[in-house]
């Protein structure tokens, strides 16, 4: 009888110990249906249909370690479900902060301050890229790498580091990326300070982005968002400077500002501008966007009308887009 009791006690202890490592894996996702029209001399011609659909499924899981830390993973499934769009592994260390590795598009450090302006739907330059000519913007590039975030004296601090921001494939399966040549490493730090009593958020940061030519791009960002009742107003400036002294076309300054108004709990509207000045060019890239968003339960209707002139700081290059997007969450 005593032997049985010892065995049962040991088994119970084993089960308890095992449960400490047990985690959960869940699926979440959504569906999108959009109608988009494009104009301007850089618009894609002869599209077969203005309608499009997208579906997103993300698997997430977490488990608690013996020391109280939590490990979690988020795995975005690509079309067909056999591979991933991106994966993120996160170690939450409580008061010690959070450490993250993203295999594709991490936004640690300064990359997280790319555009902090208030909007009803999306950033002003969204959807204005074309196949031939991209939208230019001074910003710290995002990509594979590590991120660390913590809180210091009421400020939110984020640090990002990558040994190769251009590397975006293969690693999901545990392989090294051999599709992109190595570059200098990239690092940055961003600080945000929220003053809710007066409705003010201020932020800024600096970073260095490695390039294939052995040189670096130096980045800096500073800005603020002010909230007054249902209205939010934001302004920020991003700078990008090439350390290659012979370069005359890769120094950029991007100025972004917007105003957003929450009409009620379901409806919000916004207007924003996004302008980039490139060294060596007399043409500024100028973007403006009007947006609205209406939510009803798990359904959201987004509308935007955006236009760019001087696309990629090239004279007489224009593109405009109007999008109606219906999103369902499940």
Structure description:
This protein is mainly beta and 330 residues long. It has a single domain (26-329), classed as Porin, CATH 2.40.160. The chain is 5% helix and 54% strand. It contains one helix and 16 strands. It has one helix spanning 2-19; strands spanning 24-39, 51-64, 70-77, 84-92, 98-106, 143-152, 155-162, 186-195, 200-210, 216-228, 231-242, 252-262, 267-278, 285-296, 299-309, 318-329. It has a 16-stranded antiparallel beta barrel. The longest helix has 18 residues, at 2-19. The chain is globular and about 60 Å long. The termini are far apart. The model is unreliable at 1-20 (pLDDT under 50).
Query: What is the domain tally?
Result: 1
- CATH structural architecture: Beta Barrel
Return the average pLDDT rounded to an integer. 87
Strand order of the largest sheet: 1-2-3-4-5-6-7-8-9-10-11-12-13-14-15-16
Shape: globular
Major sheet details: 16 strands, antiparallel, barrel
CATH fold title: Porin
Percent of residues in β-strands: over 45%
Low-pLDDT windows of residues: 1-20
- Counting DSSP E segments of at least 2 residues, the number of strands comes to 16
- The share of residues in helices is under 10%
Over the alpha carbons, how many angstroms does the gyration radius reach? Answer: 23 Å
Element-by-element helix/strand order: HEEEEEEEEEEEEEEEE
CATH homologous superfamily name?
A: Porin
Specify the structural class.
mainly beta
Distance between the termini: 53 Å
CATH C-level class: Mainly Beta
Question: What is the count of helical runs?
Answer: 1
